[in-house]
UniProtKB/TrEMBL annotation:
InterPro entries: ABC1_TM_dom, ABC1_TM_sf, ABC_transporter_C-like, ABCC_6TM_D1. The chain crosses the membrane at residues 63-88, 195-221, 293-315. Keywords: ATP-binding, Membrane, Nucleotide-binding, Transmembrane, Transmembrane helix, Transport. The gene is LOC125543202. This is ABC transmembrane type-1 domain-containing protein. Its main location: membrane. It comes from Triticum urartu.
Length: 341
């Protein structure tokens, strides 16, 4: 983008100034590979010609390189992220003058800096490649759906409305593309929980079991909102299909509607359909809000349970364990002072 911005600073940009899209990111470069993988899955002779599983396998084979690279970046990022929490106690002991760490100060500082550099770089490349994989998956799906729509038979056109096809392209394909953000969660979440519990156990001992219990509770609390979200999303998509079908039919027959003076009658029908769709959208967003609340409240809940367990078990909470120094400040403020005279 640097050279493009430099040219734009000097003059108004023209189409010739904008670089072409990478061939691998364009539909022309992407679609042949995806169709080859899709046809290979469709022709394997097992079960129906196309299923969600076969479609998934075709998508994975098309963007497998991005999946492998983002998995590596995700692993580096998560390992680098846990370096700080793992070494924070050693750093505090060094700052407190512990002789065991007297010669390790510079090494600790360098380790923190290197870990942060790896964390930042891997995260940015991880996110970029995830977005690129999602865009490629979405483009491939939109292309094959569009081509399929052009070659449907008369019978198939009667069973699938134009509204459904529009929603498949504008909503469903987009959701599949957005899934790229979460495709590594299946193995990342256990890894993250495992590393966090390891660090907690090495620092807090038995109290880490309370953190494990709190984490399990948070995971279970996410299940009902997720199931409700899935149900409400299906209802919402069904309402979208009905509304798009009605809208398309009204637009196609607008001449008859105007001739008969039925505009307001059919407008009220569309408004009723939109009202039903809005009600399901509200329910979907409410459950989404509940899931988001659980997600963002989880760290605080786990911390409260963990440190509460430490207090009940009599485990000392030093600044290296919690990074909370209020007790040290309070004890300092309680020291004897000089007489005011």
């Amino acid at each position: 983008m640097g050279p493009l911005l430099a040219v734009g600073y000097k003059k108004a940009l023209g189409l010739d100034d904008v670089p072409d899209l990478d061939h691998a990111d364009s539909v022309a470069g992407l679609l042949p590979s995806f169709k080859t993988n899709l046809e290979a899955q469709a022709g394997d002779g097992s079960g129906p010609k196309f299923t969600a599983f076969k479609l998934t396998k075709a998508l994975v084979r098309t963007v497998w390189w991005h999946i492998a690279v983002t998995a590596l970046y995700a692993l580096i990022y998560n390992l680098a992220t846990y370096v700080g929490p793992y070494l924070i106690d050693s750093l505090v002991q060094y700052l407190n003058g512990d002789e065991r760490y007297a010669s390790k100060g510079k090494l600790l500082v360098v380790t923190f800096i290197v870990a942060k550099v790896f964390e930042c770089l891997s995260q940015r490349h991880w996110f970029f490649r995830l977005q690129q994989a999602g865009i490629r998956a979405r483009s491939a799906l939109v292309s094959v759906v569009y081509q399929k729509g052009l070659s449907l038979s008369s019978t198939s056109r009667q069973s699938r409305t134009s509204g459904e096809m529009i929603n498949i392209i504008s909503v469903d394909a987009d959701r599949v593309g957005l899934f790229s953000w979460y495709m590594h969660d299946l193995w990342l979440v256990p890894l993250q929980v495992g590393m966090a519990l390891f660090i907690l156990y090495s620092t807090l001992g038995v109290a880490s079991l309370a953190a494990l219990g709190a984490t399990i509770v948070v995971m279970l609390a996410n299940v009902p909102p997720m199931k409700m979200q899935e149900k409400f999303q299906q209802k919402l998509m069904d309402c979208k299909d009905v509304r798009m079908k009605a809208t398309s039919e009204i637009l196609r027959n607008m001449r008859i509607l105007k001739l008969q003076g039925w505009e307001m009658k059919f407008l009220s029908k569309i408004i009723d359909l939109r009202t039903t769709e809005t009600s399901w959208l509200k329910k979907y967003l409410y459950t989404s809000t509940a899931a988001t609340f659980v997600f963002w409240g989880a760290p605080t809940f786990v911390a409260v349970v963990t440190f509460g367990a430490c207090m009940l078990l009599g485990i000392p909470l030093e600044s290296g364990k919690t990074k909370v120094s209020l007790d040290r400040i309070a004890s300092f403020l309680c020291l004897e002072e000089l007489p005011t005279d």
